[in-house]
Amino acid sequence: xxxxxxxxxxxxxxxxxxxxxxxxxxxxxxxxxxxxxxxxxxxxxxxxxxxxxxxxxxxxxxxxxxxxxxxxxxxxxxxxxxxxxxxxxxxxxxxxxxxxxxxxxxxxxxxxxxxxxxxxxxxxxxxxxxxxxxxxxxxxxxxxxxxxxxxxxxxxxxxxxxxxxxxxxxxxxxxxxxxxxxxxxxxxxxxxxxxxxxxxxxxxxxxxxxxxxxxxxxxxxxxxxxxxxxxxxxxxxxxxxxxxxxxxxxxxxxxxxxxxxxxxxxxxxxxxxxxxxxxxxxxxxxxxxxxxxxxxxxxxxxxxxxxx
Length: 308
Hints:
By secondary structure, this protein is an alpha/beta fold.
């Protein structure tokens, strides 16, 4: 309802993960590059982690959108709360296959034959599991075993596990150490710093058709303060701010508007969501744990370090 008032062609702050509105920060480019490399290198496992609302699903969809132009088949598992048989059936169906058997051995044989065909055609097959921190231990082990489907030199199936920081903790558990040692790349999304939040708001409005500033500098600064740089919360605050500005018939979103919206959304109490970027431990960004496994490389260092 506010689009005509602000001369916008699209809603700039929708909550759905729309790759068109993805703003390419330096750390975002690193994460995308890591995902694409992990898949095309055919090494098996890639892990993507990040706090709630920091754009993991959007980045995944952007990466898959870019990959779809190549010879790539993808299965996107958005519900990790599946039994192993249901998981295999879902993956087969998402790849466009009709399961010929409801047994695990039958579905694995069918998947293996199909993957070999794709490999011979120089095609890549990817399974993406979203919200992977909710995977059961049993299903995690079944997913690990899928990487045993391989040629003499390369993995036939590439697997991306995406989830919240709890996924990292889960993968540190001794019971999944075999899976952990097979992870080729780790990538991490990060919240935005203040300047990047302002750039993010301006860019999304530009993509939506804005031709003049809509958020004042003070308003953008307050959006960052209340959202802690988390894109999902930025979108939420900005969307409500545009609605309120439209209702009040003010041509710009002011700091007062943002403060009012944050109070309505009770975001003053959200400071516990994530620590500021400058207190993130660098040791967790640059290397893996001392558990005897090979070094783990993180793509997507803190945004603040990236822009220095």
